[in-house]
Amino acid sequence: MLMRTDPFREIDRLAEHLLGTNSRPAVMHMDAYRDGDYFYAAFDLPGVDPDSIDCTVERNVLTVRAQRRRPTGDNVELVAAERPMGTFSRQLFLSDTLDTDRLEAGYDNGVLTLRIPVAERAKPRRVAIATGGNGHRQIDA
């Protein structure tokens, strides 16, 4: 059997009340970064069934939804319930400089990772500049 003594449990309950509940979790933690020609977003979703993850892009809005459920059954007896359950959702507003048509997603070890290429029009390119003479010079734009 599980014994629990926690003098700060009431503070935790107050925080859950203000920030979120088991039925309405408050946070889906995320890291976002750019590496070369790709933008990455990594979402922590431990214990989530990959079939419950839904990722959509509409215009410049990326929406990620996932669901974590408690085990159910006739013989299941809940002894402690501390992990947030329910539907998690997060929206990101993406720049026009990302090519969302080529977005890739993978789920591994409880982390959903999205890889979005930077659009060709947003990559640095060389531009020819005319000078007063008859020559041209290349510079980075």
Automatic annotation (TrEMBL):
InterPro entries: A-crystallin/Hsp20_dom, HSP20-like_chaperone, Small_HSP. CDD domains: ACD_sHsps-like. SUPFAM superfamilies: HSP20-like chaperones. Belongs to the small heat shock protein (HSP20) family. PANTHER family: HEAT-SHOCK PROTEIN 20 FAMILY MEMBER. This is Hsp20/alpha crystallin family protein.
